[in-house]
């Protein structure tokens, strides 16, 4: 990118105002971790797409944009054991 991105607070404000339309989270419980959950919830709902890459379900998955993806992943201490 030619310009710097947003920090957390600026990203929430940009989503709220409709300037950011896609939200991607890698782990964590973003909604519950922010100080103003109601404002953040409205910001997330303004997104066209929210993507959360998570090891387990959390409350952040309940508040999402127009289209939402929850992509499961293994935790850092889990082993991917398969028959093959």
Radius of gyration: 14 Å
Series of secondary-structure elements, N-terminal to C-terminal = HEHHEE
N-to-C span: 40 Å
Query: How many helical stretches?
Result: 3
Mean pLDDT: 94
Largest sheet: 3 strands, parallel
Strand content: 15-25%
Number of strands: 3
Query: Strand order of the main beta sheet, please?
Result: 1-2-3
Pick out the low-confidence regions: none
User: Helix share of residues?
Assistant: 25-40%
Q: Can you tell me the overall shape?
A: elongated
Structural class: alpha/beta
Quick rundown:
The chain is of the alpha/beta class and 84 residues long.
Keywords:
single chain; 84 residues; alpha/beta; three-stranded parallel β-sheet; 3 helices; 3 strands
3D architecture notes:
It contains 3 helices and 3 strands, in the order αβααββ. With 84 residues, the chain is α/β, with parallel strands linked by helices. Helix 1 (8-16) packs across helix 3. The longest helix has 9 residues, at 8-16.
Topology:
Elements: H1 8-16, E1 22-26, H2 30-33, H3 37-45, E2 49-54, E3 67-72
Helix pairs in contact: 1-3
